[in-house]
Amino acid sequence: MIRINLLAVERERSTRRLAIPVAHRVTLGASLIILVTLLGMGWWYWALHQESARLDADITAAERETQALRSVLAQVQTFETRRAQLQQRVSLIEQLRRGQSGPVHAIDEVSKAIPDRLWLTEIVQKGDEFSIAGLTTSLSGLSDFVANLEASPWFRRPIDIIDSQVEANQKAGEIFKFSIRAGFETPEAPASAPAAGTPTVARVEDAGT
């Protein structure tokens, strides 16, 4: 009796059918590698795109912040300019106040220093210097006037006598015509010479002439 194992033949055929050729396996492997490579490149491109978008957003935000800082800086510069202008105005006002109070004090001190029988005919201010001209009936009156000015804290020592002349007068007899120069200063602080401007002139009519 002859026996044939048909199951073994079927198994061998099935095994042969399931076997994949080497060329096909290489092609399949290469295709998988290419697919993985393409997926990696796609992910890398997507990551770069996301990073570029993030950087663009950061640049836009930085530009907005820079613009805001420029606006603030411009406002600060405008404020500093206005503050400097206000300081200059305040300084100018203070200088004008000091310049206005100086002649007032000077005239007041000069009027206090005038002795009897002495008249002033002219007071000229140039900076902190006062030129004073007048008439007196005696040289002692002129000496007393100079001494009184030197005793005042508003005038610097010495008081210079610039000129002294004798003139004849029909009513008063001999009249001494004089001119002196006195430096003005404030007693609270050392005197600072202001810029020489237009001289201030005060004229007093001689009652005896």
- Number of H- or I-type helical stretches: 3
What's the CATH architecture name? Answer: 2-Layer Sandwich
Strand content: 15-25%
Q: Looking at the structure, what is the overall shape? A: rod-shaped
**What are the secondary-structure elements, in order, as H or E?**
HHEEHEEE
What value does the Rg take, in angstroms? 55 Å
- Total count of domains: 1
Keywords:
single chain, alpha+beta, Gyrase A, domain 2, five-stranded antiparallel β-sheet, disordered C terminus
Describe this structure in words.
The protein is α+β, with helices and mostly antiparallel strands. It has one domain (33-209): General secretion pathway protein M, EpsM (Gyrase A, domain 2, 2-Layer Sandwich). It has three helices and five strands. It has a five-stranded antiparallel sheet with strand order 3-4-2-1-5. Residues 189-209 have low confidence and may be disordered.
Give a short summary of the structure.
The protein has helices at 6-18, 22-113, 139-151, and strands at residues 118-126, 129-136, 160-169, 173-183, 200-203.
Helix-strand blueprint:
Elements: H1 6-18, H2 22-113, E1 118-126, E2 129-136, H3 139-151, E3 160-169, E4 173-183, E5 200-203
Antiparallel strand pairs: 1-2, 1-5, 2-4, 3-4
